[in-house]
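In response to reviewer comment 3 from the previous cycle, which asked for concrete evidence that the modeling workflow produces usable outputs, we include below a single protein chain processed end to end. The sequence was submitted unchanged, and the resulting structure tokens are shown without manual editing.
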Amino acid sequence: MQEPRREAERTTRQPEIPASGAPAGFEEVYLRYAARLRKIAIRKFSIPITEAETLVHDVFATYFMHAASVHAVEPYLIGAICNASRHYVRRSDAADALFCGEMPCAATPGDALLDEVARKLLLSRMLAGVGSRCRELLQRYYWNGETTRAIADALDSTPGTILVFLHKCRRRALTTYHALSERS
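The workflow returned the following structure tokens.
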């Protein structure tokens, strides 16, 4: 009864590593460590099986490219699969946060934010349509808070003339607003 068990152990044994500590060929390295690396990715980092397989292949591709500079194969491969798995988890967490796998999505902007953006876009388009002189006058009066007297002094005009210009600019802005509202 003892004999069959020993025979089974011999058939499932991993390839031997030469005395130098480095496996003889790439195929031997792959056969020896691939299953272990998959298990680390799946169990330790909860990576789906198909993705774990991809990560293992990426790790081995990197190892094959840099095999000459690798002194200890096992620690190199284990460290590489851990780093690749962490990178995968970070990337997938970022994608989940951005594209929201949960309901309701935390990244979805609220109605107030959407209304604010729409209002600012409309105002920007409206100001682009009224002309530079009106835009400057409206900006100075409404955004900068300058008085008609200060604007008149800067433009070498009278406060009454500035009030007429403001009236015409507001009317032009309202016409542009209506034209933009009809298109949307």
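The first helix runs from residue 2 to 12. We consider this sufficient to address the reviewer's concern, and the full set will be provided in the supplementary archive.
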